[in-house]
Amino acid sequence: MRFTTTVAVTAAALLSLSAAAAQAVEADPEYPRGNPPATNCLPSVYNPPTGQKDKPAGHYYDDAPDRNVAWWFFAQSGTGTLTFSPEALAEIERLNGKVEAICPVGGLKGGKGVWTPVGADGYSNINLLNGRIWYPGGWKITNPKTGRSHRVDGFWLHDFPFLTKASANAYVDDKRVPHEIEMAHYNTVDVFANLLSPRLNQGTFTLGPTNWKFLLSEQYAKELNEILGAKLKPGTHVLTLEINASVLPGQNMPLKPGLQKDEPGTR
Q1: 265 within domain boundaries
Q2: Could you tell me if 230 and 95 are in contact, meaning their C-beta atoms sit under 8 angstroms apart?
Q3: What is the rounded average pLDDT for all residues in the chain?
């Protein structure tokens, strides 16, 4: 049900000239202080701030670009706000489902969706060898009645430059045996046509699409239905992404207007 997002600044990746191959890192990268990750979230299998070095075999991971060489990316920092569609919210409520964010992704107040920090400075990466635009973290959905869960931990848009879908590392019932899953697809022409959308958001100049709709894939629908007892049809609109990006690194950009992070100290 949650995927995204993102979620993330596609414009940054689309203008990338990087040709570095994806490799597992020997040390966790540091998240930028000016564009901090969520803290009210579950530890990732293999992302900071957990510091874990024992990622499961088969867990796909792309190293985030070093801030000193990521100058070619258009968006250096930002946020992605992923809100549930009415159909997705209704199904979560029907199941009394529990949705938890996985660091650095965080939840939105009121259970309206998730948010994720994005940008070339510390979060996003493009791998031109396999066409994947990578983002760390994710979300976990649990059916409290059965105890079964489905977890996304590390997700990507692909295949660059013809971006048409989102995929991820998926874990069933917290077993450390991930598999890759295609989660959603979207209207590529519409996304590209509204990719920059310059505007003011809460007095801050921002860039990025405002109405990026993700439609559930057949594979993700099948797994959510079989594992959690959901009743979702492939092609259902489940999430809408809004990106608020800056060309400067270390910027704490606002979320979609009217939404707030579910973080300690926020109102």
Answers
A1: no
A2: yes
A3: 83
